[in-house]
Every structure is written in structure tokens, then in C-alpha cells.
Amino acid sequence: MSATGVYRRRATARDFLFFQNPPLWVWHPFLPLTRRAEGSSETQCGILYDARGASGTYGHACTVFLANLFLLPETEAELFTQPRCVYDSFDELADDGWCVD
Q1: pLDDT of residue 45
Q2: Alpha-carbon gap, residue 45 to 51, rounded angstroms
Q3: Mind listing the pLDDT tens digit for each residue in 63-72?
Q4: How many whole angstroms separate alpha carbon 74 and alpha carbon 27?
Q5: What's the predicted TM-score (pTM) here?
Q6: What's the gap between Cα 95 and its chain centre?
Q7: Of 5, 45, 82, 93, which has the most beta carbons under 10 Å away?
């Protein structure tokens, strides 16, 4: 699922460092992300979730769950039911406008 809008890549080398290294995440196993559509003042919140490190679940490394860090569901199963944007790589994730918050 992806929100409508045109997003411009703003991710930097710092963002990629964090995308790829969950031990650096202050709120581990979550990494808060944001993006803003061109011409819009509304910011969309998302999170990366280190499912592999948290529960040994694979396949979610490049998945942005459309949620606010402070309003997350209480369980991993509930998190996996949330709307999300799934990417094949961190480059694709960055191309869709996501940056570390």
C-alpha cells in the first residue's frame, strides 16, 4: 500500500546508515521515518521494524509500516496488520521519499 503523491528522494548517506544498521536505532526495534509529498505541508509518519532482531521473523527489512512510533499496536501480529509500503531495497524506499525522523 502506498499513499498517493509524488515524493522526492531526500535520503542521505546518514539515512542509509540507519536503514541498514538496526543496532544504531534509538527506539530499537523501531526506526521512525517521515516523508512529505511535493507541494504539500503534510508529513506522513512511518516506521521500519527490525522483525528479524526482535522475533526472528524475516521478510520485513524494507517495509515501512504507516504508523506513528507513539501509537503502535501492542503486539507484532497487530503491527503486521497495519497499512504498509513494501520495497525490494533501501534505494526504493528512499526513492519513495522516506527519511529518518
Answers
A1: 95
A2: 19
A3: 999 999 999 9
A4: 15
A5: 0.89
A6: 13
A7: 93
